[in-house]
Amino acid sequence: MDNVTHSLFGMLVADAVCVWRRETRAEVRATASLLSALANNLPDIDIVYSWIDGPKPLGSLLQHRGHTHTLLVALPLAWLLGLGMWRWRARANPAAFTPDRKQWLLLLALAGPVLHLLMDYGNNYGIHPFWPVYSGWLYGDSIFIVEPLWLAILVPAVARGLTRRWLAVLLWLVLASVLTICWFVPFVPTASRLALLGLALATFAVGRLTSESTRVALALGGCLSVALLFVAEGASARSELRAAARTAFPALTVHDIATAPMPANPACWEALLAGEQGGRYRVLRASVALGPLSATDCSAGSDVEPTAPVATLSRANFGGVRWRSEYSADLAELSRLRRVDCRFRAMLRFARLPYFAPARQIAGDLRYDRQPGLDFSDMALSGPASTAPCPRFVPGWTEPRAELFRP
After folding, report:
1. Residues of the chain with pLDDT under 50
2. CA dist 178 → 142, 164, 264 (Å)
3. pLDDT digits (tens, 9 = 90+) for 106-124
4. Is residue 260 assigned to a domain?
5. Which residue range(s) make up the domain with 121?
6. 104 found inside a domain
């Protein structure tokens, strides 16, 4: 998720803890809010060392959501953050920051990385929180990377409890920007725009007209309801896609399905289905519309112009499934490239849906290959980069598509 959403979730959780403990000291509440916001962003400090695996973009792909996104590393860092925050504040005001407050502040700090990992798990990028016990990637495939419905709940709920007016104004400006963008971009339908506006106004009214405990409880419940809605709709989308694939491609062995909803729209999904057939690796792109939408109502994936060599799929719609394009590659050729090119081999530690474009000598991940130029997960395998040394410090994440390269 984006860092604004991580911060707002942390601040809302701090509000909830303070309400539960009936904490009334303004300075304690402000410290709890700051601590929780920082702890909820703590795993993203891996950005400071993501340059170590050259050439680009391997450092970002292999190190972001890396070791600081594991429980083994994130929880001790959070404990140190909480202890440091408490000691700093206790030195300034020992009467307010007593030992009993230290305990729940430390627990609040430890909760931050756990919530961060749960939120990151929601989208299709992936995490591996249980390293080194389990080094495989886990994907939720349910939440858009910046979900406006969450922001429509979080901003009014959190802003209402702030004592610093400038921060509240800043949050409202963020929400206004999100609502404005959603109103003008074509992939957010009118129904979603109205739902966002109505949800923001309802949350604002709740904050003005009810108690603090009601405001916090309804905001937490609303965020959880949004998450559960997308999880349930995502499961339905993947189930419908599997049924469509069995009908349209009966000989295809399906290995994985990566899905992502459109922003603020749990009825429209972009899906990529990876499989194997007759010695070839195939990735099929489709849009999946769920009721009340029809297949032609969902435009997910229609704007993609990838670097990967893809062909248009001419298969009939199946329920809400609309087939869009296909990438196909010879498995023997991909295996040879994996053996001879250490950069491609390193990329496979990240790439859930790898591709290789021989004509342009570019490799990447089809999840994020959306335009003809180099996207953030694309890497040139020829030119200056081809003479670069093999990447250093390659982490031992399990290759998501390891089954394609059996001995």
Report:
1. none
2. 20, 22, 11
3. 999 999 999 999 999 999 9
4. no
5. 3-231
6. yes
